[in-house]
Amino acid sequence: MAEYCAVIGVGQTHHKSKRDDVSIAGLVREAAKMALADADLTWTDIDAVVIGKAPDMFEGNMMPELYLAPALGAVGKPMFRVHTAGSVGGSTSLVAAHLISSGIHKRVLTVAYEKQSDSDAMWALSVPQPFAAPLLAGAGGYFAPHIRAYMRRSGAPEYIGRMVAVKDRINALRNPYAHLHLPDIDMKMVEDSMMLWDPLRYLEACPSSDGAAAMVLAAEDSLSGSYPPAWIHGMAMRSEPTMFAGRDQVNPQAGRDCSADVYAQAGITNPRAEIDVAEVYVPFSWYEPMWLENLGFCDLGDGWKLTEAGATAFEGDIPWNTSGGVLSSNPIGASGMLRFLEVAMQVRGQAGEHQIDGARRALGQAYGGGSQFFSMWVLGSDKP
Amino acid sequence: MSAAAATAKRAVRRPVSIASFAQSENVRQDDQHNEVEMLMPVVAEVFANIGITKNDIDFICSGSSDYLIGGPFSFVTALDAVGVWPPMPESHTEMDGAWALYEAWALLQEGEIDAALVYSFGRSSPGNLNEILALQLDPYYLAPLWPDPVSLAALQARALIDAGKGSEEDFAAIASRSRKDALSNPNAQVAHDIPVETLLRDEYVVSPLRRHALPPITDGAAAMVLAAGDKAREWSDKPVWISGFDHRIETHSLGARDLTSSPSTAKAADVAGVADGPIDVAELHAPFAHQEMILKEALGLDDGVTINPSGGALAANPIMSAGLIRIGEAAARIASGQAARAVAHATSGPCLQQNLVCVLEGE
Amino acid sequence: MSARTTTEELGPVTTLATPIRLDFEFTPGVAQSRFLRGLEKGKFVGQRCPTCGKVYVPSRGSCPTDGVPTTEDVDLGNVGTVTTYCVVNVPFAGQSIEIPYICAQVLLDGANISFMGLIQEIPTDEIRMGMRVEAVWVEPEELTPSLASVRYFRPSGEPDADYETYKDYL
Ligand SMILES: [Zn+2]
């Protein structure tokens, strides 16, 4: 009963630590106009706008869809705001897709952004709360202990994290939109960088970026644009509670269930063999081996071996984050959408220097909160 | 309505029913319970009403605002009121729960799932609403001036008076009727029977708005279960169906809008098919008394329509829940047989910038 | 006359500062109040879920997996195990502790959930998973219903806990 839905336009800003050349409206328009142009459409062709970002406190602008409605051509149209923590860019894409697959709309513009330099995201993440100890030093302080638990559990050597940090930054050199371009990156440079949240070093953590991402999604009878459509083969969201007795924070059940759902929809039984390229939310280096296991690309405890063997590198058999990933650009609210958008670019063959030849099926993943919110989609160049 | 008639009306492809609704008591300040404790009994009640559990639910969507609570990610722990284990498909909008309902309804349209839980919580008491809501405004040109929501609403009320479309007596009459109707609403926060002439002796808060034309500050939560397919009939003998649903937004700059009308409401009403049949009851999310007049006109409601029998937002205005509660209240009128067809409305932003319209029908 | 007077010469405005200060009153609620009243007496009070029997400390009011109120109070001891940790070496606004410091997940004996605690009285390079730690409280007259009543945790001197005893809490 659901309608087919495809990505027909993509756009993103140049991600930087401070985009003081544009307002928030200017930032989101930069991505949105690019997506419209890619789809060969104008503002008036769009039926509805779905916007996502991380907490409003990051910019100090409450419910920003109100202020951004005219900038995104939404006046007189439905405009919807999504907020599911770090997974929001992915969830926003999925809400937009559901507005098509439900038959409600034909063409939906979806946008996600963060202008971190407008406020202090580190502060916003660690707003003092009277009933919690003031220990949490941003997201790194939250995730570092779980990374340590993964290292203990899997017996992974400590250099694996550094390998991911180097690999994703080398990939970013192929992506003109990436925030970090570090041509001299190597294992030593990562090792020499400051230890922020032991065991995580500065260069094993994502940057803080200003940036936006946008896509145009369309129904089967409303396709346009010069590149072929990227068809949605499967999409899913899963949530589990933040903290509960016996919670596996290294390999969360919600992530496993979400991927099982999305693979079942796409008819995938062996993700490593059947997925050509993946963009996965890796804000801290060690989350690559952790998500390799969580997403079923290998057996439990073997994720780091794939990383070590170069399987996830650009030339590997399962290239992960050829765009440079979150480790190279992190406009938080947009980071999830960038994963979803980058895999659309791959199956449409428009990823330029970071294009994987012959990519026909790709996985986009985003996660948020304390690894308890997941959103994923599988895109293909063939109509499902 | 004629101007909007050019818009193609959208057919609802799959009937979805409001199978259950529950809300907390609305109070000025709930200083006994945290957000989880506010929501938990409401979620328990919305399931118990129809004898189901969380295991019968396929999808969850919630609406809330971090800025009201004073911390980022306030929706995260609120989910503990449901107990999402094993993991569940779940989403959140930083909008009124009425929009969370819209998202869940859209998913149900696909026909892949049959039941959804929608909830919202609004705690308006922890901070200063006049300051907090100023942050909804353009961060470069408006927010730095800190205009408070009452003053902005007063601008709108003044425009309405100047256009000859309303008077202070009209506003007082709406407030008097709403709070009187609220006497029969056990969840109302402000309910009394005070005649118009007494209300008109109130001081101005911001001219031309007197105290009675303002909503109360409210803490409250609400939850709803949506059902489609076999579950809709299984969970109710007389389902309340959503027969039309749409929402629209207007431009942000108040200077670029005619504040005396609501074209976004009119457009949403047209798409939702409000005029396709007679309306018995309307539950309108009009936080300020004069806004009811603007909405009534935009929705094309005649004087025979019963407006806000619950007392509306003037009786209780838990921000982020008040819109969802309008839909729940309208559904309750149909379920009880008092109405055959109803329209419910929710709003967001300064001076009715964004509006949602939901048409409900019995059988 | 100054040379730069026209808009072109002055260039775009790139920054506009809007100081925002908002004050909030938080409501701990029924369950957290019991936990906070425990802290006031110098002890950790957890709560047991009537459905699954797990003990939460602090409880936010519900069992997160069952969605029911945690009603039964459980007095927990002063001693627990570090399940995992990180060493924070990054400064941030509002930070009150000198860096580097150890931020650990502490699983109190008798509880089924760990919580975040500060570890002191040990060099940062000597902390390890499985270390047994005990809470150090403020002086009795300084006890308040807040986490400020717990100064920090320190090694208890007991042998490390076996990995098997806490691996399910990672
Ligand atoms: Zn339980």
**Count of separate structural domains of chain C:** 1
- Helix content bin of chain C: 10-25%
What amount of the residues of chain C lies in strands? 25-35%
The CATH class of the domain at 10-128 and 217-234 in chain B, by name, is Alpha Beta
H/E topology pattern of chain B: EHEHHEHEHHHHEEEHEHEHEHEE
Distance between the termini of chain B: 26 Å
Question: Which class of secondary structure composition applies to the elements of chain C?
Answer: alpha+beta
DSSP helical segment count of chain C:
3
The CATH architecture designation of the domain at 10-128 and 217-234 in chain B is 3-Layer(aba) Sandwich
**Quaternary:** heterotrimer
CATH topology heading of the domain at 10-128 and 217-234 in chain B: Peroxisomal Thiolase, Chain A, domain 1
Q: Tell me, briefly, the overall form of chain B.
A: globular
Q: Identify every distinct bound molecule in the structure, by name, code or SMILES.
A: zinc ion
The coarse silhouette of chain C is extended
What does this entry look like structurally?
The complex is a heterotrimer of chains A (about 375), B (about 375) and C (about 170). Chain A is α/β, with parallel strands linked by helices. Chain A has a domain at about 5-120 and about 210-220: 3-Layer(aba) Sandwich (Peroxisomal Thiolase, Chain A, domain 1). Chain A contains 13 helices and 11 strands. In chain A, the strands form 2 sheets. In chain A, strands 3-2-4-7-1-8-11-10-9 form a 9-stranded mixed beta sheet. In chain A, strands 5-6 form a two-stranded antiparallel sheet. In chain A, α3 (about 90-100) crosses α13 (about 330-350). Chain B has helices spanning about 35-50, 65-70, 75-80, 95-110, 130, 150-160, 170-180, 195-200, 230-235, 265-270, 290-300, 320-335, and strands spanning about 15-25, 60-65, 90-95, 115-125, 205, 210, 220-230, 240-250, 280-285, 305, 340-350, 355-360. In chain B, the strands form 2 sheets. A 10-stranded mixed beta sheet of chain B has the order 3-2-4-7-1-8-12-11-9-10, sandwiched between helices. In chain B, strands 5-6 form a two-stranded antiparallel ribbon. The longest helix of chain B has 14 residues, at about 35-50. With about 170 residues, chain C is of the alpha+beta class. Chain C has one domain (about 30-170). Chain C has helices spanning about 5-10, 30-40, 165, and strands spanning about 45-50, 55, 70-75, 80-90, 100-110, 115-120, 130-135, 150-155. Chain C has a 5-stranded antiparallel beta sheet, with no helix packed on it. In chain C, strands 2-1-3 form a 3-stranded antiparallel beta sheet, with helices on one face. The model of chain C has no long low-confidence stretch (mean pLDDT about 90). The structure holds zinc ion (ZN).
